[in-house]
Design a protein that fits this description.
507 residues; mainly alpha; Amino acid/polyamine transporter I; two-stranded antiparallel sheet; two-stranded antiparallel ribbon; 3% strand; disordered C terminus
Length: 507
């Protein structure tokens, strides 16, 4: 058991890191929204089209596979437990600020995906049953886009440690809590199951991981949405009052919650960033893995994944709790502003109680299974991120011992995460993610010009009725080596240059 003072001190550190980030993420999202002329609203049909048109290629995922991998990390237990945490700390109004952050933050996700595609590489990886693997993400665009190799290495180290050896504990802790309530199982019981499932996939290599994810994630997303809509529908009479409560509390107009209007903003933004991974760089690795003809295409796909996560999954979870009245709102000074569930800790238990209004007695079982599957998918995505960061650090070296160590370390934290204090695990996770986010957000400010260049190139080609293809030489973007090899732009540019040279005259 973690001592209370250590847990509270860790949470205080997490709050110090994350609370200012609320305004940074909103500000950067607004800047990218203006810089791309609100691409997240104008290109929605194009987002869907990219999922259908991309089929992948040797060493690269299709856009749909990349979307599934991104959603696996985004639609984790944070879409259930994280939403409950936002309501518990900031009131129902936090849901509105989650939605606002999701809409504006889409452009941050767009920028991350464009940069990941622009500066990705191909590497040898024995886990992939093909010659080479498309790979990229935060460390790559920091190193090659900004020429900051040491910062890229630092991020990669944090990524290996965080996503391989720390963050999986967040998922397993929540899984253990929900299964304990639903079935009375000891915390180590579901941990054994999840550890075994994770081992079966990650020891099967990248190909197996991608295939499992692309099947599992859509089934989970549609299944959970259907269940949430059924709960909302059975409580239809409460929908108008629930929406009114959300809006009033978001702007401090609800007398009972007027004192925490600021907390509604902070918690809403904080959990939206955590759930969507916008600014965290988490989805940059799956974005880089897609085989496409232009970085802007994958930018649109990743923007769409944020819509699915925040505007569908998270909002469905939150509205389900509010319309059914199954939530509490904590008073920072002690006690509760609203206590509809006396003695019940914040987390998936609230969603379980909401589902009980639809199917009495079945709520805990439904949510326990959903949390297990969402958490399992997220763990697979976490390992993919950790492994990609390790490949960056290896820089072409085999590193078989380190790769095996990462797999074994992931399995250890997956198992032990179930017996560690949930509050402590979430606080540690928040600190780690917050540190990575601050570095990434700082870098995204300096990479703004490159993102706009990529965006403008895509827009110009699309308006001309062309299928956009990326030529970094023409755009003056350096270190985009993958595209020089893939499309042979360098030799083409040289050929065009030679054509324009004056022909020599005979003496």
């Amino acid at each position: 058991m973690i001592p209370l003072d250590i847990t509270s001190d860790t949470q205080a550190i997490a709050d110090f890191i994350w609370n200012p980030m609320a305004y940074v993420v909103l500000g950067l999202g607004l800047a990218y929204t203006i810089g791309t002329k609100a691409v997240q609203f104008r290109r929605v049909p194009d987002m869907v089209r990219q999922l259908r048109d991309s089929t992948g290629g040797d060493g690269g995922m299709s856009s749909f596979q990349a979307l599934a991998m991104a959603l696996a990390s985004r639609v984790g237990v944070g879409s259930i437990a994280g939403v409950a945490t936002a309501i518990g700390g900031g009131g129902p109004g936090a849901l509105l600020w989650m939605a606002v952050t999701g809409l504006l933050g889409c452009t941050v996700g767009y920028a991350e995906a464009c940069l990941s595609q622009t500066f990705k590489r191909q590497v040898e990886d024995e886990d992939l049953k093909r010659a080479k693997e498309d790979i990229g993400g935060m460390p790559y665009y920091i190193r090659y886009g900004l020429s900051w190799p040491k910062v890229g290495a630092l991020i990669a180290v944090l990524g290996v440690v965080g996503y391989g050896l720390v963050f999986p504990g967040l998922q397993v802790s929540t899984i253990a809590s929900s299964w304990s309530r639903a079935f009375g199982l000891p915390s180590w019981g579901p941990a054994v199951v999840v550890t075994g499932l994770v081992a079966m996939v990650i020891f099967g290599g990248t190909v197996r991981l991608v295939k499992v994810t692309q099947v599992l994630v859509p089934l989970l997303a549609f299944g959970y949405l259907g269940l949430a809509l059924a709960v909302i529908g059975i409580n239809y009479a409460q929908i108008p009052s629930a929406i009114s409560l959300i809006v009033r509390s978001a702007f401090g107009m609800e007398p009972l919650l007027a004192g925490i209007a600021g907390a509604a903003v902070a918690w809403g933004v904080r959990r939206a960033v955590f759930a969507s991974s916008n600014g965290l760089g988490e989805a940059t690795f799956s974005a880089a893995g897609a085989r496409t003809s232009h970085p802007g295409k994958q930018g649109l796909v990743q923007t769409f994944s944020v819509y699915i996560d925040i505007l569908l999954i998270c909002m469905a979870s939150g509205l389900m709790m509010v319309v059914s009245g199954k939530f509490n709102v904590t008073n920072p000074d002690g006690g509760f502003f609203i206590e509809n569930l006396p003695g019940m800790a914040v987390g998936p238990n609230w969603v379980q109680e909401s589902i009980n209004t639809l199917a009495p007695g079945w709520g805990p079982a439904f949510v326990a299974v959903a949390v297990l599957m969402f958490g399992f998918a997220c763990l697979l995505a976490y390992f993919y991120v950790a492994n990609t960061n390790l490949l960056y650090l290896l820089d072409g070296r085999k590193g078989k011992g380190l790769k095996l160590g990462l797999k074994l370390g992931t399995m250890v934290i997956v198992f032990t995460g179930s017996i560690i204090s949930a509050d402590f695990v979430w606080a540690v996770g928040d600190i780690g993610l917050g540190l990575i986010a601050w570095v990434n957000l700082f870098c995204l400010v300096f990479l703004f010009k490159i993102v706009r260049t990529v965006w403008k190139d895509y827009e110009e080609q699309a308006r001309a009725g062309l299928d956009p293809h990326f030529d970094p030489v023409k755009l003056g973007i350096k270190n985009a080596d993958f595209w020089l090899v893939e499309h042979d732009w360098g030799s083409r540019q040289e050929s065009e240059s030679n054509k324009n040279q004056p022909k020599p005259t005979a003496n």
